[in-house]
Amino acid sequence: MKALIIAAHFPPELNIASFRPYFIAKGLTDAGWDVHIVTNDIPDADHKLELDISKFTIIKIQNKLQMYFRKSILVKGKAESSILSLQKSSGILSNLKLWAIKISRYYGVFNGQRFPDFYNIWIYFALKKISLEYDVLITTSPPYALSYLGLLIKRKKNNIYWVCDWRDLWTKHPIYPGFPVIRFFEKKLEKLIMNEANLNVYASTGMEKSAKKISEYQNSIVMYNGYDSEFSRYVNKTTDTIIQIVYTGTIYPKIRDPESLFSLLSNIKREYPILSDLLKFVFVGSGDSVTQLAKHYEISDLVEVRGLVSHSESRKMQVESSYLLYLDCDLQEEAGVIGAKLFEYISVGVPILCINSPVNGEASEIIKNSGMGLVFNKQDSDLLKRFILNLIKSEKRHDFVPNVTFISEFKRAHQIDKLIKKLPYE
Q: How would CATH label the architecture of 243-408?
């Protein structure tokens, strides 16, 4: 049986969106499938994701319009660095570039999140290179133009089994509202895609519930991102001289960022000027926004910011940390959205500190049920302050009892198996 997976990101590109399509491909290959990948070719991306891709046939197609945007407007391909750089410049051209980046970041357009998008053009180049010899087609989005590509292929070959994988919400995205004029057409297309796909796959139960309100009669399952390694044994690191709390992943300013935490740390530092001798927060994969935020709250001595590192180095830092920081989002629309890093966190054997959690958030419930963390809602600032003070004052720290049976349910092999059981066989 032959399967085609269409994904915007795939190893060795170091991008959180590379993991899910990779492990779907790996699971299918291990089950005896012949797997082909169609993906974007991004020459200036970080290619540090050390995963075995030798068993797949990979077709890379460059998104030339996107590359032009990255080279002519962005600094080192990064929107965050570009904004800071352009704000220091003057002139009409700099102002136009800054305006274009801000529009893209706010609305999600030309950003892989909402229409119009660079992938709206890319999919037609991809369509020319895709044969119709496959038994199963899997599209994974965002970008949602890839879901539309799946619809086009399904229309050309009706008997292909199409799996539409949703890693994020589209028209109900809490961060990117999209252009008002185009939003109506996106909603129509989203419902059409959900109805015509043979199977819709969602990254969380909350996402599936939200999608059912759009298309009540769709066929769907939940497949969590999960984790790939064995669960590491929990060790209470009471001997740590400096408590190191590590965050690995992307920061979304004003949505999923550490501002409320930094404000609290600033208050604690006034009471305990030697706080930096006892406590350190390390942000891996984060950029200038964290540095600026730490500077604003005068806690730069408490915060260390590192850029992108290899996956193995990121894993090493997680294992060696005292605690892992999970930044949730206190928006009820985000209650069913789970950051992919969470499952990697719960497999490490290091306790998790979850802050800014919405009430009954799915991520916070997983952390609680795993027995491997503490959850603080936005209104729990006094409790969080008490916890931090206890950390730096007390030799005996909070102990955790991991629920290994519950945690094991999120192994990637188990999650991928839920998808494979739904696929047709000869």
A: 3-Layer(aba) Sandwich (3.40)
Judge contact between 226 and 410, C-beta under 8 A.
yes
Secondary structure percentages of the chain, helix, strand, coil, to 5: 45, 20, 40
Sketch the domain layout of the chain as residue ranges.
2-77+106-226+412-420, 243-408
Nearest to 383 by CA among 357, 363, 412: 357
Which residues neighbour 216 within 8 Å (Cβ) at sequence distance 6 or greater? none
pLDDT at res. 396: 57
Helix axes 259-271, 381-393, angle to 10 degrees: 50
User: For residue 134, what pLDDT is reported?
Assistant: 95
Question: What six digits make up the tokens of 179?
Answer: 């252009």
User: What pLDDT is recorded for position 262?
Assistant: 96
| 358 token code pair | 């919405």
CATH 3.40.630.30 fits 2-77+106-226+412-420, yes or no: no
State the burial class of residue 422 (Cβ atoms within 10 Å of its Cβ: 0-12, 13-18, 19+). Answer: middle
Alpha carbons 372 and 384: distance in angstroms, whole number: 17
Alpha-helical (H) ranges within 164-226 are 180-196, 205-212
d(CA 364, CA 1): 39
Could you identify the residue written with the tokens 């992108």?
308
pLDDT averaged per 10 residues, the chain (length 426)? 96 91 96 96 83 94 85 60 61 77 89 94 94 94 97 95 95 89 96 97 93 92 87 52 90 85 94 90 85 94 88 87 89 68 89 88 92 90 91 73 91 94 84
Specify the pLDDT at position 151: 97
Return all residues near 124 (Cβ < 8 A) that are at least 6 apart: none
